[in-house]
Amino acid sequence: MTEKITEPVIDSNDTASIGPDPSLLIVDDDGPFLRRLARAMETRGFVVEIAESVAEGIARAKTKPPKHAVIDLRLGDGSGLDVIEAIRARRDDTRIIMLTGYGNIATAVNAVKLGAIDYLAKPADADEIFSALVQKSGERAELPENPMSADRVRWEHIQRVYEMCERNVSETARRLNMHRRTLQRILAKRAPK
User: Fold this and answer.
1) In the chain, at which end, N or C, are there fewer CB atoms within 10 A of the end residue's CB?
2) Which residues carry this modification: 4-aspartylphosphate (predicted)?
3) Strand, coil or helix: 103
């Protein structure tokens, strides 16, 4: 059975909020998610280019820096932060959204320092991503319905100390007064809800 492909339905409100340059680069190593998100963004009026690695993302950013970008933090060949740097080196008005399944405050701060305008935890849906991309400067994001759990706050603290220790597990474990193996298990898991 072949998949039926239909022409995207573009809402004029969506294209008006995108602006005159609809270029969008999506960098993610999760192929099915990448293609679904690309299709969803095309239906909203973006002209989408995709990349499945840091190297491919940097190459696309060098040849044609986009006005909008959605970049996964952890990719198979490195960090999405490198793609942000490559985009910022060529274009300073790009609206960049950082996506990650391993969200923590320290990497969010790094992403914002490098030029990301927002940071969304996976699984983020196309509507959330679209809203973040077209949000006007100075607009406040809606408050989350569910605040962070105590487990998440603990995990965030551990991640912050880990980043401060330059990702040195032994030093982080010493500062947190925690066994090294326990820390390694915590770091290997996804963020709690």
Assistant:
1) N
2) 72
3) coil
75-107 per-position pLDDT tens digit = 888 888 899 999 999 998 899 998 876 656 667
Which of 23, 10, 44 has the alpha carbon at shortest distance from 127?
Answer: 44
Domain count, the chain: 2
CA distances from 136 to 19, 25, 42, 141, 185 (A): 11, 19, 20, 10, 40
161 and 81 both lie in a single domain: no
Residues in the chain: 193
Q: Is 122 helix (H, G, I), strand (E, B) or coil?
A: coil
End-to-end C-alpha distance for the chain, whole angstroms:
38
Predicted model pTM? 0.65
* Residue showing tokens 């990349």: 51
Task: List all residues 6 or more positions away from 35 whose beta carbon is below 8 Å from its beta carbon.
Answer: 50
- Co-location of 127 and 174 in the same domain: no
Q: Of 104, 134, 164, at which residue does a domain stop?
A: 134
Asked if residue 55 lies in contact with residue 82, where contact means CB atoms within 8 angstroms, the answer is: no
Residues 83 and 21 in one domain: yes
Query: Which residue reads 């990650």 in tokens?
Result: 100
